[in-house]
Write a structure and sequence with these properties.
Protein name: NDxxF motif lipoprotein
Distance between the termini: 15 Å
Order of helices and strands: HHHHHH
Organism: Bacillus kandeliae
Helix content: 55-70%
Oligomer: single chain
Number of strands: 0
Structural class: mainly alpha
Keywords: Lipoprotein, Signal
């Protein structure tokens, strides 16, 4: 997953710039490695389940959490090269736009499917609260990235028109109550406790 700290810092800088403040930005020489857009493959597996009003055993919920988190990580990684182009103020061609739209659609389906699954079935003891925490965290994280992209696009458009950028970051900053280091730590501690091995959060599994 992309580092949320950088994103929140970027929002702060944009907000300050929109108020006419001069800020010198020091770029970190170390950047996350991003795969080439030509090499992007849209993940073909997301979390799905048609179960309703069922009792879920521990083995199944562990696999469900792993599938959801792994799919979310793969979709996030797949979208990065496209978002890099957008963030640089460049335009995607038709094929690239279609690929990004498909990734976005799958991401939303992945979030909705898992949320419906954990809310409409009976989970083993000790899993309901933490499964909801995972669902809320990942969904808020994805929504944050969508809104950040929209802000960056509007910011670029305003600047190109010679207009003073207007940035309302209240909605995004509210998500910091869900998407933050404390919540991620709780999730990772739960994953370790239940021995759920996932590639999410940069974990090497």
């Amino acid at each position: 997953m992309r580092k949320l700290f950088f994103s929140f810092l970027l929002l702060f800088i944009l907000s300050a710039c929109s108020q006419g403040e001069n800020i010198d930005v020091i770029e970190d020489e170390e950047e996350d490695e991003v795969i080439s857009i030509q090499d992007v493959k849209i993940p073909d597996v997301i979390f799905t389940s048609e179960k309703q009003d069922s009792v879920i055993d521990e083995e199944e919920i562990k696999l469900s959490i792993k599938t959801y988190l792994d799919s979310s990580e793969e979709l996030d990684n797949a979208s990065e090269p496209f978002q890099e182009i957008i963030d640089e103020g460049k335009e995607l061609n038709k094929n690239e736009s279609e690929k990004l739209a498909e990734i976005t659609k799958l991401t939303k389906e992945n979030d909705e499917n898992f949320s419906n699954y954990i809310l409409n079935n009976t989970l083993p003891e000790g899993y309901q609260e933490e499964s909801e925490r995972i669902s809320q965290y990942i969904t808020a994280y994805n929504e944050f990235l969508y809104e950040l992209d929209e802000i960056l696009n509007n910011f670029t458009d305003d600047v190109s028109k010679g207009e003073s950028p207007k940035i309302n970051i209240e909605s995004i900053m509210n998500k910091s109550d869900v998407v933050n280091g404390r919540e991620q730590k709780k999730i990772e501690e739960f994953l370790d406790k239940k021995n759920i091995k996932t590639k999410a959060f940069g974990r090497d599994y």
